[in-house]
Write a structure and sequence with these properties.
heterodimer; A: flat; B: alpha/beta; two-stranded antiparallel ribbon; globular
Chain lengths: 600, 292
C-alpha cells in the first residue's frame, strides 16, 4: 500500500453466483483496472475511484468465497473474488483508503479557498485519522463541512485548534474483548467405537485455557519442552492423564504415575493452585459480614447438607494425592473464566502463551508482595468497623466536593428575570419610604414584643380561610412550575422546544463559537493574511445573523420568549465582534490617513 | 448534650437555625398586614410544632438586628420546657434594648439593612460545633425569615457564608416578608439546595411555614417543594458595592469591579495598561447577562 498500487489475481463476477472471469486486478489511487486472462474476453474494467462510493465484503470462513463488492453511486456494483482472504483484505484496505481519499478531496477541490497559504503536506495516515475523526463525530463533520468546504476557514486553521484530537492514538483497542469459553470439558475424547483408540483434539484456544487453569501443566510445559520431549509427546502424555482421570480409577492413576515421572506431574494435585488458594484466603477481609439467613441454615442438616462420596472410606492414604475433586476443578475453572483474558498473545505459539501467562502471574505476585500497605489498610479497616464510640477522638466533619455546574442550568434560571419584568404578583406588604428616627423605631419594636408577651399566642393562629387559600396557592404553584418546565424538574428548556429548532440552535451556537474563536484570535492584525481571514469571518458572521432572527420567528408563540432568551447572548456576542471590527477598521483608515504625503 | 443511644436517632432529626429579622426600621415601614407581634406569634407556634415533630429536634433562634446579632433561644440548653416562649421573648426584649444602645444613626431613611451576614456566620459556627460534638448529631439547616432589603456592603461576607454552607452541606431556606425579592437569599437557596419563598398572603404565614419549611432534610428527597422560577445572579462590585451587570474581573482572584482599576484591591495583582493600538484590553472581560 505504501507504493500506491496493488496488483492481485482475481475473478470478476457480475453476481455472486456467477463463476467469474479470471484475471488480474490492478488498483492505484485514482483508478482500478481489471484485465482478464483471456485477451478475447470483453470483461475489461477501467473505473475511477471517484465513482466508487462504498465497498462490502464477505466474512472469513472456510466455506465462503473471498468476495469484495464495490458499489457505485448510481447503483451499479463490481464483485471480485480472490484466491485467499489475505489477498482480499489487502485490496479491501486499499479500496477503503482510496474511497475515503476521494470522498474528501472531491469535496475540497470543488471550492477554491482564497487564502494564499501553502497546501500542507499531509501523510496518508494523518489524512485517514482526520477522516476517521470526522466520521465518528457528527457535529465535527457538520462544522467541517460548513466552514472548510464553504471556504470560510482553511483546513489547517480548522484543525489547528483541535490538536488534542489529532494527537490521540487512533489505534484503539476494540472496546469489548472476547472472553474465555465457559465450556469445561472441551477436551472431549473422541473414541472410535471399533478400535481401542481415543482421540483428543487440542486447539490453541483449548491450550490457552489449560495453561490458564492449571499452572502446574504450564510449568511442566516450559520445563520439559523442547528439552525432554517434543510438544506432541507432551500433549500425548497430558491426554493420557486426562483419560485416566476421566475413568475415575485412582488406583490405575497411581500405578501409572509411579512408572512415568512426567505423567505423575499431570496426575498429582496441583501444588501451585493450592498455594494460590492459600494466599487468597489470607487476603480476605476479616470484617466481611457473611450473615446467613433462614434459607441458609445448613448446620442442622446431616452432614451439613453435603453429599458424601461413599467411596472415600475405601481409599488408602497413598492414593490421596491422585484424587481429583470435581468441586475444586469447577471452582478453579469459574475463577479463571471470570478473570477473563489476562494475556493478549497470538494463540498460535504455545510456548509464548505459556511464557506470557507465567509472566503475568509473577507480576501479580510481585505486586502483592510489594504492597506492604495491605496489612496496614486491613488493620485500619478492622478498627473502623469495630470501633467503640466513646474511645474515638473527634473526626473532621464531612465536606461536599467542588462541583462545576452545567451552564444550561443558568439559562433556565434566567427565565425569572424576564418574568420579573411583568412585576410581582401582588405582595402582601408594601413599604413606604419615610424618615424614621431610631428612637421611634426601636420604641415601636419593643411595644410589639411586650404586646405579645401580654396577650400570648392567639387562638386560632391563623384564620382557616386564609390557610386554605395559602395551601391551594402553594399547590397550584408547585404543579404549575412543573407544567412550565416539564414533568422532570431537571429537564432543560431546550428539551421542550421542537427538535428541529433545538438542533438548529445548538448548531448555530457551536458554529458561532468556532467563528468567534478564530475571529478574536486574529487580533491584533499584523499581517495581510490575518486581515483577509478576519474579513472572511466577518462575512460569515453577518450571514448567521439573519438566520438567528429567522429561528426566533419560526417558533410558536409560547416558546418564542424562551427562544429569544437563548438567542440573545449569541446576538450579543456577534454584536461585540462587529463593533470591534468596525472600530478597528476606523482606526486603520484614520491611521493611514495620517501618514505624511510622501509615503502614501 | 447527653449522649443518646443510636437506636433513637431516626432519619428526620433536625437542627433548625432560625434567623429572625429584627430590623426596627423595616418593621416600622411595612403596612400592617403583618405586624411584628403577629409575626412573632406565627413564628412561636411554628417553633413549637417543630419541637413536637421529633423528640430530638433542636432549635436555635438568632436575632438579626440593625447593629448586632445574638442568640436568643436554644432548645438544647436545659430550661423549663413550659416556659420556652417566655424565655425567648424575654431574651428578645433584652436584645432589642442592647441593639438600640449600639445605634449610632439618629434617623434612617427607608427600611435600612439588617446584618444578615453576621447572623449567617453565627449560625454556621454553631453548626460546626454540633458537627464536632460526636458521631451522632441532627442534620442542620438554616431558615432565614428576612424582610429587609439586601445590603450591598455585605455582599462579600454573605457570599463567603453561602459557600461555606454549601461545602458543609447545610441548606439555607429563605422566607421573604419584605416587598422585594432578595437577590442574596435567592442565590443562597439556589446554591445550597434550600427553598426560597416569598409568601403572597402574609397573614397566613404560619401555614406557609408549616407546609414548606417544617419539612426535614430526609423527607425533602421525596416531597415537592415550591421552586422559584428563576434566580437573580447579579453580583455587586467590590469597590462601590453597587449591583452590576457588566464589569471588570481580576483574572487572578475573580473579584468584580465596575470601573477599570490599576491594581486589584483583593489580591494586589497589577492590571496592565490598556493598549491603544487595538481596542482589546487583555484584562477586560465582558460579563453578559440575559435580563433586561
Amino acid at each position: 500500500m505504501a507504493d500506491g498500487q496493488v496488483m492481485k489475481r482475481a475473478k470478476y463476477k457480475s453476481s455472486v453466483k456467477d463463476p467469474g472471469v479470471p484475471g488480474v486486478l490492478k488498483m492505484t489511487r485514482e483508478r482500478l483496472v481489471f484485465m482478464p486472462n483471456d485477451p478475447n474476453s470483453s470483461r475489461k474494467l477501467n473505473v475511477e475511484f471517484r465513482m466508487i462510493k462504498g465497498h462490502k465484503f464477505t466474512k472469513e470462513g472456510s466455506s465462503k468465497q473471498a468476495l469484495l463488492n464495490l458499489t457505485q453511486d448510481q447503483g451499479g456494483n463490481y464483485i471480485f473474488e480472490f484466491d485467499s482472504f489475505a489477498d482480499r483484505d489487502i485490496c479491501r484496505e486499499f479500496v477503503a483508503a482510496a474511497i475515503a481519499f476521494h470522498g474528501e478531496t472531491g469535496k475540497a477541490t470543488s471550492e477554491k479557498p482564497a487564502a494564499p497559504l501553502q497546501d500542507e503536506q499531509l501523510s496518508t495516515a494523518e489524512m485517514e485519522h482526520r477522516i476517521k475523526l470526522l466520521q465518528e463525530d457528527n457535529e465535527l463533520q457538520r462544522l467541517h463541512k460548513q466552514f472548510v468546504i464553504g471556504g470560510i476557514l482553511t483546513e489547517a486553521e480548522f484543525w489547528a485548534t483541535r490538536k488534542k484530537l489529532l494527537d490521540q492514538n487512533d489505534r484503539r483497542r476494540p472496546k469489548q474483548r472476547v472472553a474465555l469459553k465457559n465450556e469445561m470439558w472441551s477436551v472431549k475424547p473422541f473414541s472410535d467405537g471399533q478400535s481401542n483408540r481415543v482421540t483428543f483434539n487440542l486447539t490453541p484456544e483449548i491450550i490457552h485455557q489449560i495453561f490458564a487453569e492449571k499452572p502446574a501443566v504450564r510449568q511442566a510445559y516450559l520445563k520439559f519442552v523442547p528439552n525432554k520431549m517434543s510438544e506432541k509427546e507432551f500433549w500425548t502424555k497430558y491426554s493420557r492423564a486426562e483419560y485416566l482421570h476421566s475413568t475415575k480409577n485412582v488406583v490405575a492413576a497411581a500405578a501409572e504415575a509411579a512408572e512415568d515421572e512426567e505423567l505423575a506431574v499431570f496426575l498429582k494435585q496441583d501444588d501451585m493452585l493450592a498455594n494460590e488458594a492459600r494466599r487468597k484466603i489470607r487476603r480476605v477481609d476479616p470484617t466481611l459480614d457473611m450473615e446467613a439467613d433462614v434459607g441458609d441454615d445448613y448446620i442442622h442438616l446431616p452432614d451439613r447438607g453435603l453429599i458424601r462420596e461413599e467411596s472415600k472410606d475405601a481409599i488408602d492414604a497413598q492414593y490421596e494425592p491422585y484424587r481429583r475433586y470435581f468441586s475444586q476443578d469447577l471452582n478453579q475453572h469459574a475463577a479463571v473464566v471470570l478473570q477473563g483474558r489476562v494475556v493478549d498473545v497470538e494463540l498460535g505459539d504455545t510456548r509464548s502463551v505459556a511464557e506470557a501467562l507465567t509472566r503475568t502471574k509473577q507480576a501479580e505476585l510481585a505486586n502483592e508482595v510489594s504492597e506492604g500497605n495491605f496489612e496496614k489498610d486491613l488493620s485500619h479497616r478492622i478498627s473502623r468497623m469495630t470501633e467503640i464510640e466513646d474511645l474515638q477522638g473527634p473526626r473532621d466533619p464531612a465536606v461536599a466536593p467542588l462541583c462545576i455546574k452545567d451552564p444550561r442550568d443558568y439559562f433556565d434560571s434566567q427565565q425569572a428575570n424576564a418574568l420579573k419584568a411583568l412585576g410581582d404578583a401582588g405582595s402582601g406588604a408594601k413599604t413606604f419610604k419615610c424618615n424614621v428616627s431610631s428612637l421611634e423605631a426601636y420604641g415601636s419594636l419593643r411595644e410589639f414584643v411586650s404586646e405579645i408577651r401580654v396577650t400570648g399566642l392567639s387562638e386560632p393562629i391563623t384564620n382557616p380561610e386564609v390557610s386554605f387559600k395559602v395551601l391551594s396557592g402553594l399547590t397550584q404553584n408547585i404543579s404549575s412550575t412543573k407544567y412550565h418546565l416539564g414533568k422532570n424538574p431537571h429537564e432543560s428548556v431546550l428539551d421542550s422546544l421542537p427538535k428541529v429548532t433545538k438542533e438548529d440552535l445548538l448548531h448555530h451556537w457551536t458554529s458561532i463559537q468556532e467563528l468567534l474563536k478564530h475571529f478574536w484570535s486574529s487580533y491584533p492584525i499584523t499581517t495581510k493574511y490575518l486581515y483577509t481571514k478576519v474579513t472572511r469571518l466577518k462575512d460569515a458572521m453577518s450571514q448567521v445573523y439573519p438566520k438567528l432572527q429567522e429561528i426566533k420567528e419560526s417558533v410558536q408563540s409560547d416558546f418564542r420568549h424562551q427562544v429569544s432568551l437563548l438567542v440573545h447572548p449569541m446576538l450579543q456576542a456577534l454584536d461585540a465582534a462587529f463593533a470591534h471590527y468596525d472600530a478597528d477598521v476606523q482606526k486603520r483608515s484614520a491611521k493611514s490617513g495620517e501618514r505624511p504625503n510622501g509615503f502614501v | 448534650m447527653t449522649p443518646v443511644a443510636s437506636k433513637i436517632y431516626t432519619d428526620d432529626v433536625s437542627l433548625l437555625m432560625v434567623l429572625i429579622d429584627t430590623n426596627p426600621f423595616f418593621w416600622n415601614s411595612i403596612n400592617s398586614t403583618l405586624s411584628f407581634s403577629k409575626f412573632l406569634s406565627n413564628v412561636l407556634a411554628f417553633l413549637n410544632s417543630i419541637l413536637l415533630l421529633n423528640q430530638l429536634n433542636q432549635i436555635v433562634v438568632i436575632a438579626t438586628g440593625y447593629n448586632s446579632c445574638d442568640y436568643i433561644f436554644d432548645s438544647a440548653a436545659s430550661q423549663n420546657h413550659n416556659q420556652r416562649a417566655e424565655n425567648l421573648l424575654q431574651k428578645l426584649e433584652d436584645f432589642v434594648h442592647k441593639d438600640e444602645s449600639l445605634c449610632r444613626d439618629d434617623s434612617v431613611d427607608g427600611p435600612g439593612f439588617s446584618l444578615l451576614s453576621g447572623s449567617l456566620s453565627m449560625a454556621l459556627c454553631y453548626i460546626q460545633k454540633v458537627f464536632r460534638s460526636g458521631p451522632l448529631h441532627p442534620r442542620p439547616r438554616i431558615l432565614c425569615l428576612h424582610g429587609s432589603p439586601d445590603g450591598p456592603g455585605q455582599y462579600v461576607a454573605i457570599m463567603n457564608a453561602i459557600f461555606s454552607a454549601q461545602r458543609s452541606m447545610v441548606p439555607i431556606d429563605s422566607c421573604i416578608m419584605g416587598a422585594q425579592h432578595s437577590a442574596f437569599l435567592q442565590q443562597a437557596s439556589y446554591i445550597t439546595g434550600g427553598v426560597y419563598l416569598k409568601p403572597q398572603h402574609l397573614d397566613g404565614l404560619f401555614q406557609y411555614l408549616s407546609t414548606v419549611f417544617a419539612t426535614d432534610l430526609h423527607s425533602r428527597s421525596f416531597l415537592q417543594l415550591p421552586k422559584p422560577v428563576g434566580v437573580d445572579f447579579r453580583a455587586s462590585c467590590f469597590c462601590h458595592k453597587n449591583t452590576i451587570d457588566m464589569g471588570y474581573i481580576c483574572s487572578v482572584c475573580l473579584s468584580i469591579f465596575c470601573k477599570h482599576h490599576k491594581k486589584c484591591s483583593t489580591c494586589g495583582s497589577d492590571f496592565g495598561q490598556p493598549q491603544t493600538q487595538d481596542s482589546s484590553t487583555p484584562d477586560r472581560k465582558r460579563k453578559t447577562s440575559v435580563d433586561k
